[in-house]
Design a protein that fits this description.
It is built from 6 helices and 10 strands, in the order βαβαββαββββαββαα. By secondary structure, the protein is of the alpha/beta class. It has a domain of 134 residues: Alpha-Beta Complex (Spore Coat Polysaccharide Biosynthesis Protein SpsA, Chain A), CATH 3.90.550.10.
């Protein structure tokens, strides 16, 4: 596992260490300056040699999903990117993802402020190694700089129905704190 870190990297590494207590091995890709979501992936490329595909997860959201199902979906569609999406009742603070009948991503809409429901990017992806050639060196955003340019190259989305929380606002961060035990249960599959 590679953890991309920048701000407060030393504290993150101190908290998670080498991963042995969770029976995983963690390497750290430490950014000396903020690189954005795409730049961080590109900067971690040195840890990805020899892998045909890899999983990427945003660190500021939680989406309960079946990783094996997402990987099977990715392989079935021969996608360069497969993203997990989640329907939310109010997509006000999110951009939305538009799909065709075959689950191929055909467009993205920026945040509109409308209180309408919509499919939102859940921040979990399976990437084909070929994506690394399409990400520029330096600061870049997956959502704004990379994904829109890849739509003609097999970008697919799989809708998920599990728990979703994005801690992008103080209110949702506080909500995530109260959901701690539920998030742990959702992540581990443990029942009370």
């Amino acid at each position: 596992m590679v953890m991309c870190s920048g701000h407060l990297a030393a504290q993150v590494e101190e908290e998670f260490g080498d991963g042995h207590q969770w029976e995983v091995e963690i390497d750290y890709s430490k950014e000396s300056r903020p690189l954005g979501t795409a730049g961080a992936v590109k900067f971690a490329e040195r840890f990805l040699s020899g892998v045909p595909e890899f999983l990427v997860m945003n660190g500021d959201s939680f989406l309960q999903l079946d990783f094996c199902q997402l990987l099977r979906f990715h392989r079935k569609h021969g996608a360069i990117v497969s993203m997990a999406v989640r329907r939310v009742p109010e997509a006000t603070r999110y951009g939305t993802v538009q799909l065709d009948a075959s689950s191929r991503v055909i467009g993205f809409s920026e945040k509109s402020g409308a209180r309408d429901p919509g499919l939102v990017n859940g921040g979990v992806y399976v990437f084909d190694r070929a994506i690394l050639q399409r990400i520029p060196d330096g600061p870049a955003s997956l959502e704004k700089d990379v994904f829109p340019d890849l739509l003609q190259h097999r970008v697919y989305a799989l809708e998920q129905h599990g728990m979703f929380i994005d801690i992008g606002t103080p209110e949702d961060y506080a909500r995530a704190q109260t959901l701690g035990p539920s998030l742990y249960q959702a992540a581990t599959g443990e029942l009370q």
